[in-house]
Every structure is written in structure tokens, then in C-alpha cells.
Specification:
77% of the residues lie in helices and 0% in strands. α1 packs antiparallel against α2, α1 packs parallel to α3 and α2 runs antiparallel to α3.
């Protein structure tokens, strides 16, 4: 029991963390897909292709890396780096679309 009267459950925290990463990766994939759709609508095929490939690559990495998630394992650091790169790329592509919409 903890000081608040709740029993500690060491097995639930890793599961909650893994589920949170599932949501984070899926949100990143959907963000990349949204940018791809927006770029396609604005006749920006290169940006759309990069965003779509990023979404697909991130989805494949999620399917590959998340099942190997273990407490104390190194797989989560690799996944975190992939998500970080995807989010930064997503931000750069979004800025590209925004600036081209303002200029054009």
C-alpha cells in the first residue's frame, strides 16, 4: 500500500506507457496523412509524397517496434527517436504548406 491507501501495481504502468505511445504514434501518422492530403489539394506533389511516405514509414515502424516494448528494454528509445523525426518533419511540411499558401 502507498501513503494514499492504493496498492501499487508495477505491471500496469508499462502497459499504460505502451498504450500512450500507441496513441502518440497514431496521432503522428494521422497528422502526416492530413498534411499529405492538404498538400495534394494545393498541387504540391513532392510535399504530399514526403508526408505520405513519412506516415507509411512511421506506421510500419510502430507495427514493428511496439510489440517488442519491454520494461528496461532499448526498443522504446528507438521508437521515440522515430516519432521525434516524424513530428519535426511534419512540422516542417506544415510550415511549407502554410508559407506557400500565404505567398501563392
Amino acid at each position: 500500500m502507498t501513503e494514499h491507501g492504493f496498492a501499487e501495481d508495477g505491471g500496469a504502468q508499462p502497459q499504460r506507457t505502451m498504450l500512450a505511445w500507441h496513441r502518440t504514434v497514431m496521432a503522428s501518422v494521422l497528422g502526416c496523412a492530413t498534411v499529405a492530403f492538404a498538400a495534394s489539394r494545393q498541387q504540391m506533389p513532392v510535399v504530399a509524397a514526403v508526408a505520405a511516405c513519412t506516415a507509411l514509414g512511421l506506421f510500419v515502424m510502430m507495427l514493428r517496434d511496439l510489440p517488442s516494448w519491454r520494461v528496461g528494454g532499448g526498443a522504446h528509445y528507438l521508437l521515440m527517436r522515430h516519432v521525434l523525426v516524424a513530428v519535426l518533419l511534419l512540422a516542417a511540411l506544415g510550415v511549407t504548406i502554410s508559407v506557400s499558401g500565404l505567398v501563392g
